[in-house]
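Form 7-S
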Amino acid sequence: MDERQEMLEVFNRHNQLIGQAKRGTIHQLGLRHRAVHIFVINNEEKLYMQLRRDHKDQYPRHWDTSAAGHVSPGESYAAAAARELAEELRLQEKITWLTHVNACRETGWEHVGLFQCQTGSEPAPNPEEIARGAFFTLAEIDHMLVDISILITPAFRLLYGLWKNFLLEKE
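Output:
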């Protein structure tokens, strides 16, 4: 099935359900919907990033969060995060809820549930979803974010900053 035809729930700015529409319509009109992003950390405290495939309808060939995706109708953020982690990286690890981010331009009008996952396993990227992926140190990611030749999604830029704040709060 053409993923633009996938039905998703539409929400208002308060994250209250107001209807459903096709994914293509939602993206075209900038309607608010739900998504999850999962930051996968390895035992060396490196963060996994994925390079989006060139067929993606938004931000093809951009570096992005370890795993991410839309929340299906009736699905919880946690269930969507576990599903996306398994679908995109073939990982079945414990995930930890970090925060909710209200829909905004940077998130592509997605109300985002942000999660973290610690793993000792090597992700196995789904080639239908991901061009490639790798673990990076935070210093490497910070460098990538200022290098204008490296394409990075606006959502990752926003969520990475929030995630780093969580790390600082834990210290």
